[in-house]
Amino acid sequence: MLTLYTFGPSFGLPDASPFVVKAEMLLKLAGLPYRTDRSGFRRAPKGKLPYIDDDGEIVADSTLIRLHIERKYGFDFDAGLTPERRGAAWMFEKALEDHFYWHVVQARWCDDENFAKGPASFFKAIPWPVRPLAQAFIRRKIRSTLHGQGTGRYTRQEQSQLLKRGAQAAADVLGDKPYFFGDAPCGADATAFGFISSAASPHFRMALRDEIEHLPNLTAYVTRMRREFFHDAGDGLGA
Question: What's the structural domain count of the chain?
Answer without folding.
Answer: 1
